Amino acid sequence: MRGGCFVLRNHFPLVPLCIVKFLSALAALLPLSAAVVAAPGPFVVRGYLPATQAHKAYLNYHHGATYVVDSAVVIKGHFQFKGVVADPQQASLLLPPPGTPYTHMLAEDVATIYLEKGAITVTGPGQPMQAVATGTPLNHEHTVLTAQTAPLQAQLAALYAARRRQPAADTALARQTDAQEARLNQQLQGVYAAYLRAHPANPYSLYALAEYEAYQPDVAASAALFQALALSVRTSPQGQLMQQQLARLQRTALGAQAPDFGLPDPSGKLVKLSDLRGQYVLVDFWASWCKPCRAENPTVAKAYATYQHQNFTVISISLDNQSARAAWLKAIQDDGLTWTQVSDLHGFNTEVAQQYAISAIPQNFLLDPQGRIVAKNLRGDALSQKLAQVLSAN
Question: Is 68:61 a contact under the CB 8 Å cutoff?
């Protein structure tokens, strides 16, 4: 699933960021085990990004049980961070352009780096997302794999930009674009899979597997690659987290019984998913602040208008926070969302997001009348095409 919004999960606070590329939440959940990689200790991050317009840089990571959001002044593209990590870990370096809220940035304003003992240098001639971190083992492996995927990622970025310019009514062009995206995603899967098979004992492979999982809807394929990793990697704390993530994804695999939930609608009335049993149901995750979600809403509205009298309905779960209640209600009105809307306004911390392993939006799950998952992440024409297929068979 691409073109969505995600959160950086670091145990505690969740920072939502609108992006154009999905990043698996697992990759930022916990640091790697010190028993698997180099000993923890002090780090320094020195950055030089001459093209950035940011006045401040932010570094998100955790030190033990403490979630850290450090900041540094950017002077003519230069900035520096110092700190100590209890264990090596993935971190996010954020450089918001002037006027852009820290909590809502595009992917190009965020760089992924790995904090571990030593001196780390972050450089790049363009946007932060294209920056390269060097100086330590995990950053080296990340740079190697990123170089291999860069041509495909560039093609995807160009495809997303073209999609945003496409007329909504041009369904033939939309189908062509979706097919191109599927081909590129499949090629990316191949690159990640090849890396994993070639580096079964490298601790970085768990992060590579998290990226592979983001492009692979079949959890069984991810589980097979995980089992092929070295025992030392699989039994590390990060490896155990991957096992838990794969188990969660298995609960929402195709053919699985969708987890039941109950959430209040805007009036406070509790709505249960099981109350909708007997119909085809689209379980749709979104938020008012998520631009790709808002762009997808007309597609869902069209499908609902077409098929609502043919044993089909929608339940949309907003991952807005309590402070965004007014924005949620306004988005429902502005986008003409006439079907069931629910939320406890706990954002990505809501229990249902955990049940469905949601780390990026928009996402959706199509359930059959028995509550089994028959399709996932139906975007654009794919939603109407799938509905036409399953409803015509009944």
Answer: yes
231/298 same-domain check: no
What is the pLDDT tens value at each position of the chain, 394 positions in all?
344 554 443 322 233 344 333 333 444 444 443 334 445 689 999 999 999 999 999 999 877 777 788 999 999 999 999 999 887 888 999 999 888 776 666 777 889 999 999 999 999 988 898 899 999 999 999 999 999 999 998 898 788 777 667 675 666 776 777 788 889 989 999 999 999 999 999 999 999 998 888 766 678 889 999 999 999 999 987 888 888 888 888 888 889 999 999 999 999 999 999 999 999 999 999 999 887 888 889 999 999 999 999 999 999 999 999 999 999 999 999 999 999 999 999 988 899 998 998 877 889 999 999 999 999 988 877 888 899 999 886 6
Q: How many domains does the chain have?
A: 3
- The residue among 271, 201, 186, 196 whose CA lies nearest residue 231 is 201
Residue whose C-alpha is closest to residue 11's, from 23, 21, 25: 25
Q: Coil, strand, or helix at residue 345? A: coil
Q: What is the DSSP letter of 368?
A: -
Contacts of 113 (CB under 8 A, 6+ apart): 45, 90, 91, 92, 93, 120, 122, 133, 139, 142
Among 251, 274, 305, residue at a domain's last position: 251
Structural domain boundaries enclosing 352 = 262-392
Q: Tell me which residue of 5, 211, 214, 1 sits closest to 105, measured CA to CA.
A: 5
Beta bridge partners of 111: 93
Cα torsion 372, 376, 381, 386 to 10°: value is -20
Sheet hosting strand 363-367, strand order edge to edge: 340-342, 312-318, 280-286, 363-367, 373-376
Answer whether residue 257 is part of any domain. no
Question: Of 113, 94, 114, which Cα lies nearest the Cα of 52?
Answer: 94
Q: Which two tokens stand for residue 131?
A: 């920056």
